[in-house]
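Example A, followed by Example B.
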Amino acid sequence: MDCKVKWTGDGMSFIAETGTNHTVVMDGAIEAGGRNLAPRPMELMLAGAGGCAAFDVVLILKKGRHAVKGVEVSLQAERADVEPRVFTRIHFHFRVTGKQLKPEAVARAIELSKDKYCSATSMLSKTAEITHDFEIVDE
C-alpha cells in the first residue's frame, strides 16, 4: 500500500494521493495555522476505523445471507491530554437496517470485525479502549 502526502504550501493544508489514485485533502485548525477547509488527519483516522468496521459488518452479514439494507456507524472518541494525543477511548454505535435481522447475527458480525478482521480497530486498540453497541431497524 502506498500513499504520498504533500503540503499545498498554503497554511496547513495537505493533499494525500493514495496508491489507488484517489485524493484526500486535509487541513488544520485555525489556531494551528490551518483554514479549517478539510478534515483533520486524526478525523480521517477515526473515519477509516468506522469504514473498516462497517465494511466488515456488511460483508459478514451478506455472506451469511442476511437481508442487510444499510449500516451506519457513529463513533465517539477521546484523546489523550498530552502529546502524542492518541485515541484513548473509541465507542462505535452501529445502526443496522434490514429485513428480519437477528440480533445474534449482527452482534457476531460486529465481534468478528472487532476481534478478527478490522485492521484499523486492531491498531487503534493498542492505545484506545474500544467499545460498541448496536441497534437494528427492521425495514
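Example B, a separate protein, is given below in the same form.
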Amino acid sequence: MSDEATELDMLLSLDGASFEAAAGYLVEFTVKRTDTAPERPHGISYVLVFRPVHGEPFVRFDNAHAVARPGGRFVKGAKAFDHWHRSPDDPGRPYVFTTAAALLDDFWREVKRAMAERGIPNDL
C-alpha cells in the first residue's frame, strides 16, 4: 500500500470521531469515501471542525460545497470544492488538497492558531 493510500485510510478512520481539545471545545471529524469527481478528485468527502461545545465552528475545513472565488463568478478557478473557514463569519476560502496528512497538519495548525487567538489553553 502506498503512503498516500495509508494516509487516506488513516484520515478515513477518523470518521465520526469527536475529541475535547480543551474544556468546552471540540474537534470533530466526518470523512467518507466518495466517487472521484471534479468536485472531489481525491475520492473523499470531509468536514474537520474545531468549535465550542455549544457554538459555531472557529475553524472548518471541508469540501461540502463550492466557495465564491475572489473577483466573482467570472473568475476561472479549480472545480474542487476543497476550502476552509478561518472563523465563524468566514464564507470560506479555497484550500489546495495535496494529501490527507497535509490536510490534517493544516487543520491542526489552524486549530492551534484559533486557540491562541482566543486565549484557550492547549497542549496540542
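On Example B: Strands lie at 18-22, 25-33, 44-52, 59-62, 83-85, 93-94.
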